[in-house]
Design brief:
Radius of gyration: 21 Å
Number of strands: 14
Strand order of the largest sheet: 10-12-7-13-11-14
Shape: globular
Largest sheet: 6 strands, mixed
Strand content: 15-25%
Helix content: 25-40%
Number of helices: 11
Length: 344
C-alpha cells in the first residue's frame, strides 16, 4: 500500500513554512513596544502599558467582501490586505480607540506563496498606516473548500480608549457640523453592485480613467483615517462629538448609528463633487441618487461631528494631516416622519 502524506491530501506544509518566512519581516515593521514575543507562537502577547488610567478595550472584526472576486479576476492581490485592516481599525476608531494590534485569517484551497505574500504585504502596510502591530494570524490551506486561485480573508483589531474619553455620540446636539473626509474610492463596500455594473458595461480594465488605469481605480485600497483623527483628538480634546465610518449602507445608513432618536443629519450633496468612479457607476448602472447614497460612500469615507465653533479649527488640523475635508451638513431636531439622515 502506498504511504500517503499531507501533501498528497493537498496540504503543503513546506509552502506554509515558506510563507511564514516571507511574512516575518513584514510583521516586524509594524511592531510596537508593547508586543512581547514574535510571529510563530501559539498566541500573541501584548502588554497594556501605564499610559491609560482606566483603559477600555475596543474590538472589531470584518472581511473584504466580494471585492475579493475582482482581485481574483484581475490577479491583483496587493491592496486587499489594506482593505482588511481598514475595515476594522476605522470602525474601532469611531469610538475614540487607538488600534493596538491586528490579527488576520487567510484561507485557501491550495496555498500560493506569492499571492499570500502579496495579501499579507497589504495587511502589513495597513497596520503601519494605522500604527498597530500585526501581532499574529492564521493561514489555513483547506483542499476542496475553495476554487483554484481563490481565498478568503478576515481580520480582527483590538484598540484601547480611556474610559472617560469614549466617543459614543451622546454629546451631539442640533447645530453641530458634519465634516466629511474624502474617501480613496469605493473602499470595500458595494462591490456586488460594482461587479454587476462592470459585467454590464465591460470596461477595459487597463484603459486610462482620469489619469490611472481603471483597474487601479476600482481596486484602490480603503483609506485609513486613524493617525489624523487621533492627532485631532489629542490636539483638541473633546472637540470630536461623534464619528461614522461610511461602510456598507452608505451615508444614509451609517450616520444614524451615532445619533440620538430625536436628531437627524441633513447632508447637502452639493458641498462636494461626486468622484469620477461613482459618476461612472451611477451612469453605467443607471443607479438612482438615493440608492447611491445608501450603498456607496460616494466620496466621503468618514463623517466627523463637531460643534459649529470648532469646525474650522478641526478642519484645519485634519487638512494639515493630509485629509481632504468638506463641510457637508448639520445636525437638526428630527421632525415627525423625517429620516434620521437625508442627503439632498
Amino acid at each position: 500500500m502506498t504511504s500517503l502524506t499531507y501533501r498528497d491530501a493537498g496540504v503543503d506544509i513546506d509552502a506554509g513554512d515558506a510563507l511564514v518566512d516571507r511574512i516575518k519581516p513584514l510583521a516586524k515593521r509594524t511592531m510596537r513596544p508593547e508586543v512581547l514575543g514574535g510571529i510563530g507562537g501559539f498566541g500573541a502577547l501584548f502588554e497594556l502599558t501605564g499610559k491609560y488610567r482606566e483603559p477600555v478595550l475596543v474590538s472589531g472584526t470584518d472581511g473584504v467582501g466580494t471585492k475579493l472576486k475582482l482581485a481574483f479576476q484581475l490577479n491583483k492581490h496587493d491592496t486587499v490586505g489594506q482593505d482588511l485592516v481598514a475595515m476594522s481599525v476605522n470602525d474601532i476608531l469611531v469610538q475614540g480607540a487607538e488600534p493596538l494590534f491586528f490579527l488576520d485569517y487567510f484561507a485557501c484551497g491550495k496555498l500560493d506563496v506569492d499571492t499570500a505574500a502579496d495579501v499579507v504585504g497589504g495587511i502589513a502596510r495597513g497596520c503601519e498606516l494605522a500604527g498597530c502591530a500585526l501581532i499574529g494570524g492564521e493561514t489555513a490551506e483547506m483542499p476542496g473548500m475553495y476554487p483554484a486561485g481563490e481565498y478568503d480573508l478576515a481580520g480582527f483589531a483590538v484598540g484601547a480608549v480611556e474610559k472617560s474619553e469614549i466617543i459614543d455620540g451622546s454629546r451631539i446636539a442640533p447645530g453641530d457640523v458634519l465634516l466629511g473626509l474624502a474617501s480613496s474610492g469605493a473602499h470595500s463596500n458595494g462591490y456586488s453592485l460594482i461587479r454587476k455594473i462592470i459585467d454590464r458595461a465591460r470596461p477595459d480594465m487597463d484603459a486610462d480613467f482620469h489619469g490611472r488605469a481603471f483597474r487601479d481605480v476600482v481596486m484602490a485600497p480603503t483609506r485609513i483615517y486613524v493617525k489624523p483623527l487621533l492627532a485631532l483628538m489629542r490636539a483638541q480634546p473633546g472637540v470630536v462629538k461623534g464619528m461614522a465610518h461610511i461602510t456598507g449602507g452608505g451615508l444614509t445608513e451609517n450616520v444614524p448609528r451615532i445619533l440620538g432618536e430625536t436628531l437627524t443629519a441633513r447632508i447637502d450633496a452639493s458641498t462636494w463633487t461626486l468622484p469620477p468612479l461613482f459618476q461612472w457607476l451611477k451612469a453605467e448602472g443607471n443607479v438612482a441618487d438615493q440608492e447611491m447614497y445608501r450603498v456607496f460612500n460616494c466620496g466621503i469615507g468618514m463623517v466627523v461631528v463637531v460643534a459649529e465653533a470648532d469646525a474650522d479649527a478641526a478642519a484645519r488640523e485634519l487638512e494639515a494631516a493630509g485629509e481632504t475635508v468638506f463641510r457637508i451638513g448639520r445636525i437638526a431636531e428630527r421632525t415627525d416622519g423625517e429620516a434620521p439622515t437625508t442627503v439632498a
